[in-house]
Amino acid sequence: MAEISVIEHIHSMQLLWSPMATGQFTSLMHDLILSAKIISRSVTKAGLVDILGGTGDINIQGEQVQKLDDFANSVMIYRMKNCGVVCALGSEEEDELIIVDTDKPRGNYVIFFDPLDGSSNIDANVSIGTIFSIYRVDDNTELTKENILQKGTEQVAAGYFLYGPSTMMVYSTGHGVHGFTLDPSVGEFLLSHENIRIPASGKYYSANLANYAKWSEQDQKAMDSFNNGKYSLRYVGSLVADFHRTLLYGGLFSYPADSKNANGKLRLLYEANPLSFLIEQAGGLAFDGNGKRVLEIEPKEVHVRTAFLFGSKEDVEQYRKAF
Length: 323
Description:
Layout: H1 6-17, H2 24-44, E1 54-58, E2 64-66, H3 67-82, E3 86-91, E4 98-99, E5 109-117, E6 128-136, H4 145-148, E7 157-163, E8 167-172, E9 178-183, E10 188-193, E11 204-206, H5 217-224, E12 232-233, H6 239-249, E13 252-255, E14 266-267, H7 268-281, E15 285-287, E16 305-306, E17 308-311, H8 313-320
Parallel strand pairs: 3-5, 11-12, 11-13
Antiparallel strand pairs: 1-2, 3-4, 5-6, 6-7, 7-8, 8-9, 9-10, 13-17, 14-16, 15-17
Helix pairs in contact: 2-3
């Protein structure tokens, strides 16, 4: 069986669904993948090159910036600004949008990313990842915040890189979800999980139960319905790792609003939108704390937060019955 690289897969998908493609998207993905390879290399060597621990800075989210966080953010910004096809970008680590100023013809893509999700787990050697979300704008679209911030339904692609026992890339362009594993011997992401489909129900539920007392009565009741012997609790605290497990094995993940985070804690543009795009493409569901489809939320600010519920159809519906 031929081993298919991720770039070959992107080309084949374009020929099938976008025969008039200009090559801009492939160019963007090439630099995005290169960024992940560089980050992956540094993650595996972090303890050897003094990039573990905090920098002493606090990011826009009010969290301590890790050295590896800072490195990953710098890599992503540099590659995305210089790939030639991105006109604007947003990072979870940056206060505001970055407009790419260049003398060359303007690119048509906007990318949002969490450069290193789960970074609080770095020192414990837990799986972490990079999450990305890609949108497109027309040549004549003015690059204002109002025009750049779009609903999740407008994503042209989304995905993540998972840095664990192996480095994986999972992505979708709206035509199924596909997974690739990095083969260090050839330096390429090779197709390993084609057309991933989440099971209709699963064995696991995932939530930070330390926050249980801060949740609404409805969310407490909903979560109690999973403590019935059928499900096992699995919670890593690294969103990309919890998502990857849920995608492959099914089940439910819930991070509701609470008395400390009235609007939810997870970021719409950097986490909830791209992961909702993937879970829906795989046959699952994703909602906010008010029962609204995450992809339909209209973002007003760059760092807007949301409650986040996703997973297998049957398990998500079971949770929602409590409301």
